[in-house]
Amino acid sequence: MSRAFESNLLARFLRYVAIDTMSDESVVATKSPSTEGQWELLHLLAKELTEMGIEDVTTAPQGVVIARLPSNTTRDVPTVAFMAHVDTADDVPGNGVKARVIESYDGKDIPLNGDVTLSVADNPALGEYIGDTLIVTDGTTLLGSDDKAGVAEIMSALQYLIDNPQIEHGEVEVIFTTDEETGAGMDHFPYDKIRCQYCYTIDGGGRHVIESECFNAATVKVRFEGISYHLGMARGRLVNALTMAAFFVNALPQAESPEATDERYGYYCAQNISGTATAVDLTIYLRDFDLDVLNRRIEAIKRLAVATEALYNGGTVSVDAKHVYYNMALIAENKPFAMEHLKEAGRELGFELREELIRGGTDGARMANERNIPCPNIFTGGYNIHSIYEWAALGAMADAARLIVKIVEVGGR
Ligand SMILES: [Zn+2]
C-alpha cells in the first residue's frame, strides 16, 4: 500500500472527526441515536459507500449503516463483517474538534496550546512514532479516534478492495453503529439486516493490540428491609436497614474490588446505594473472565444475605442477580476461525499482534452473546482516548486498515 493510501486514510479521518458526534446518555432512553450529529456522519458514510460503487447500502432507522461488498470468488466462504461506532465519548468536550496533523514527528514534547502539552514522559508510546505522522487535538477536546479511526480504517480498506479486484474474497459486510459510548448502541440493533458469520470491531487502542476476551458481567440488586419502630421505644425491636446494608457492603471482599485487581482478576463493586432505616436498595457489579468464578461470586452474595439476616433478627435481605454480558471468548471457542484468520493475517503482514484483556464489555461482546457471532476487537492506532491528550498515529492506523484487507483475503481462501 502506497503513500496515497495513507494520505487518503488521513483525509477521511480528518473529515469524520470534524463532525460533532458526541453521544448523550441523558436522552438515550427516548432518542436513538441520542444526537443529530451521529446521523450526519452516518449519512456521509452511506453517501461515500455509494460513491465507491457499493450498491447494497442500508441506513437502518435505529441509527446503523450496513453495506456489503459482494463476493468475487467461486469458493463458498462465510461473510465477514467489520464494525465501528460513529459516536464519541462525553468525558471531555467531544464537539468542535480541531485536529492538528504533525508530519515527520521529531520525538519531542508536543504543545497542544499555550497551556497544555502532550509530553513524552507521560506518553512513552510517542517514541515508537518518530518520523511518522501524528494527529493531535488543540488541547480543548478529545480527538475522536475512538472510534472514527476505526470508521476511517474500514472505509479505506473497503476502497482498497474495490480498487484491487484481483484480491479474491467472500462477501464483506461493514457496520457503522451509534451510541456505543452510552452503552445503548446494541439495544435496538437490527440483527435481521446483517449476514456475517463472524465480525471484528475496530475499536481498540495502540498499534498491534488485539482483544478476544472481555469480562462476564452480572448486576446484583440487593434489598434490605428492616423493622421500623418509634425510636423512643425501639430497644430490642427496631431493625435498621441502613445498619444491615453497611455491614453487608463492608463484608464484601476488599481484595476483590476494582481498585485492588487487574489483569485476569475479577471483582465485586458496590456501585449504588439508596434508602432509609426502613429499606435500602444496593446495586453491586460483579465481573470476571471466568463464568464459573462470576457465578461463585453471585452465590457468595446470596450466602452473605443469609448471614446478614441471621445477624439482624427480623430483617430481610433479598438478592436479584442478572447476567449482563458474557466473555466473548466463550463464543470464540465454538468458532475459532475468527481468531485464526486474524492471527494468520497478522503473521502474513509481519505484525507482532499482542493479545490483551478487556476489563469491560464491548458492542462486539453483545453481538457475540446475542447472535453467536464471534467478534474480536482490533486496534485503531488511537491513544489516550476520552481525553484532551488523545492522539493517533497514521502508521498504526494504516496497519489496522492493512490488517482488515488481509483478514478479508485470508477469509477468501
Ligand atoms: Zn470505542
Would you kindly provide a brief summary of this structure?
It is built from nine helices and 18 strands. With 413 residues, it is of the alpha+beta class.
List the helices and strands and how they pair.
Elements: H1 3-17, H2 36-51, E1 56-60, E2 64-69, E3 80-85, E4 100-102, E5 110-111, E6 117-118, E7 134-136, H3 145-163, E8 172-177, E9 198-202, E10 209-214, E11 216-225, H4 241-251, E12 267-275, E13 279-288, H5 291-311, E14 316-325, H6 329-334, H7 337-349, E15 354-358, H8 363-371, E16 377-378, E17 382-383, E18 391-393, H9 394-411
Parallel strand pairs: 3-8, 3-9, 9-16, 10-15
Antiparallel strand pairs: 1-2, 2-8, 4-7, 5-6, 7-18, 10-16, 11-13, 11-14, 12-13, 17-18
Helix pairs in contact: 1-3, 1-9, 3-9, 4-5, 7-9
The structure holds zinc ion.
Zinc ion (ZN) is lined by residues 85, 146-147, 180, 203.
Explain what this protein looks like in three dimensions.
- The protein is α+β, with helices and mostly antiparallel strands and 413 residues long.
- The chain folds into two domains: 3-214 and 327-411, 3-Layer(aba) Sandwich (Aminopeptidase); 216-325, 2-Layer Sandwich (Alpha-Beta Plaits).
- It is built from nine helices and 18 strands.
- It has helices spanning 3-17, 36-51, 145-163, 241-251, 291-311, 329-334, 337-349, 363-371, 394-411; strands spanning 56-60, 64-69, 80-85, 100-102, 110-111, 117-118, 134-136, 172-177, 198-202, 209-214, 216-225, 267-275, 279-288, 316-325, 354-358, 377-378, 382-383, 391-393.
- The strands form four sheets. Strands 1-2-8-3-9-16-10-15 form an eight-stranded mixed sheet, with helices on both faces.
- A hairpin with a 5-residue loop joins β5 (110-111) and β6 (117-118).
- α1 (3-17) packs across α9 (394-411) and α4 packs antiparallel against α5 (291-311).
- It is globular and about 85 Å long.
- The two termini are 21 Å apart.
- The mean pLDDT is 96.
- It binds zinc ion.
- Zinc ion is lined by residues 85, 146-147, 180, 203.
